[in-house]
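FORM 7B: Structural annotation worksheet

SECTION A. Query
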Amino acid sequence: MEKTPAGERASFALLALALFALYLVTHPWRGVHGDALIYVTRAFAPPAVLEGDMLFTHERQTLLTIYGLLLGWLSHVAPVADAARGLALLGGAVWFAGLVLLMRAIARAAHLPMIVALCMSALVALAPLSYSAGSSFLAGEILAVPRPFAEGFVLMAFATLLEKRWLAGCLALAGAMAFHPLIGAAGAAVAFTWAALGDRRLWLVAALCACLVVAVATVSNRLDTFDADWLALLRLRTAYLFISQAPASFWVDLLLRGVILFIAARLCFGRLRLLLRAVLVASVLGLLVSLLFADLWPIVFVTQAQPWRVLFIPAILAPAAVALIACKGEGPATRVTLALIACALMTRDVPLLSVVFSLGALAFHIYPPVVRLASSRIEAALWIVATAAWVGFDLMNLVAFGQILGNAPDGFSLPWSYLWVLRSLALPLSVLAIV
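SECTION B. Predicted structure
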């Protein structure tokens, strides 16, 4: 591996810090809410309060992570709010460090300059990264929960494995599991799939392990299904556990991310291509297992394992893969493909249109008769469509937001980062990836 000059490393580090500052601006700390309430209360509340609360009597997730130990230690040195905020920012820093390390490893594997790694990091940091059925979970949240730590360690693991540093990769995956077993298991599943794509004998090992798990689960009565009333309550209160209840926007984003990763994998070579393919295969398997054994035949153990958690990985890699397509592809077909991807992103509010544009991007990349249709006129027309969708959906929503804020009571404030859900920066970012 070629050594990077000291001056270039310093410049890369400074620009990465600038991107981290931008990431914090667009992902501000919003207080203790959601799952953070469980972790923070468990760490700071008196034992008498926890013992008398039914939630904490039956709650087990905080006992499966070292995150609670960190919060417990901080409870002796800082107030609740400061400890939660500090740990949330530390989690964001770990996540962003993992992101930059992975993007740098990908740029090296693709033989691209380090500036491309920073562009890919920017695309990911500013992209919408929801990945659950109910948009309940976002990759890289600034929240007092262990997920950002685990996600960051998974990204570090992929970066080291991409560079064939096996021990460091395994240790990073172990760190991810220590913080969040489900996220760590998702990263390990992708890593195993990655290895199995390179050595097909490992699929036999996977089949044997699956049989062993089923046998043990059967003996220990872990294949029990839900009581009908309890299942109905779960489907109502925790709909994100059941993929079949996901809104159309979930499937639209999933299709677009899959198309982007598939195209990028065809343009890359070696271990990077295998990594992108492994993410696709593991994501499809995670979805199938969730649909079969959490939705159609709801087994308690599988529902608790949440195999769909693997979807946080394509959510992170897909925005970066747009830059890979721009850098590795060439000719009018690639430019039209990128324009179709931009159209698919801009029309996410109209699911059918977004699906058509996503499939069109796939067709323009792999189907020769369609490739021959590529021209500068078609490319220009598609960018006009993308721009019109951007104006039509996002700017109108911005006007509506302005009216809401104008009629809001005195003292009401809304962090401007909430406006990012409108994707107002998505079109300029797509153009940046192409340029």
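SECTION C. Observations
The chain has a mean pLDDT of 84. The chain is about 70% helix and 0% strand.

SECTION D. Sign-off
Analyst initials: ____
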